[in-house]
């Protein structure tokens, strides 16, 4: 791992985390609703029968309206359960079956399906602090999603605020790129060779 790239990532994470803390509740609520509306027209999500999503943190663009919309369409939604070895298990999302996990992250309380359940999803909606025009995603730095997505055959879609879609994000070879980006302003398709 390059020390300069690591330093760039750390500095950018600090900047973006501070910006997120400054957002109002109204901004976050409006962003969550707009993202869900844009998702309704996204062909990859319209065709999907099973989607991996995540339970958003208070500072992130909210995923609750999007998850509710998918479930209302009959789409089965899986949400992650972090493991101590920094791997992810998956659980079918059920309304009200959520608790705060060991890392302070909302987690499902239902029965785990195993790490392989991700491969049964058509789309994986993933969090990020930023995404660039080439689809490089900046996560929080623990690598959970990069490891989980390494062999994922479906469409990977990051969910970020409008100002977190950047021209360039520092990245390394192990960082898994995304195919689509959902923001409150709409859908962005990075320059990648996929029909989405």
Automatic annotation (TrEMBL):
Its EC number is 6.3.3.2. InterPro entries: FTHF_cligase (IPR002698), FTHF_cligase-like_sf (IPR024185), NagB/RpiA_transferase-like (IPR037171). Its cofactor is Mg(2+). One of its GO terms (molecular function) is ATP binding. It comes from the Bacteria. ATP binds at residues 9-13, 137-145. Keywords: ATP-binding, Ligase, Magnesium, Metal-binding, Nucleotide-binding. Substrate binds at residues 55, 60. Pfam families: 5-FTHF_cyc-lig. It catalyses: (6S)-5-formyl-5,6,7,8-tetrahydrofolate + ATP = (6R)-5,10-methenyltetrahydrofolate + ADP + phosphate. One of its GO terms (biological process) is folic acid-containing compound biosynthetic process. Belongs to the 5-formyltetrahydrofolate cyclo-ligase family. This is 5-formyltetrahydrofolate cyclo-ligase. It comes from Aeromicrobium tamlense.
């Amino acid at each position: 791992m390059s020390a300069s790239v690591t330093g760039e990532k750390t500095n950018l994470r600090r900047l973006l985390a501070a910006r997120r803390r400054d957002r109002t509740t109204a901004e976050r609520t409006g962003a969550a609703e707009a993202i869900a509306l844009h998702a309704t027209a996204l062909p990859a999500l319209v065709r999907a029968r099973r989607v991996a999503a995540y339970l958003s943190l208070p500072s992130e663009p909210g995923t609750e309206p999007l998850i509710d919309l998918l479930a209302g369409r009959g789409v089965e939604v899986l949400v992650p359960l972090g493991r101590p070895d920094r791997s992810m298990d998956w659980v079918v999302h059920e309304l009200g079956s959520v608790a705060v996990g060991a890392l302070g992250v909302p987690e499902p309380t239902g029965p785990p399906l195993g790490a392989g359940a991700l491969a049964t999803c058509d789309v994986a909606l993933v969090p990020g602090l930023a995404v660039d025009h080439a689809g490089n995603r900046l996560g929080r730095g623990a690598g959970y999603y990069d490891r989980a997505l390494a062999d994922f055959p479906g469409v990977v879609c990051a969910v970020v605020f409008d100002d977190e879609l950047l021209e360039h994000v520092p990245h390394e070879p192990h960082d898994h790129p995304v195919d689509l980006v959902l923001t409150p302003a709409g859908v962005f398709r990075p320059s990648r060779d996929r029909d989405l």
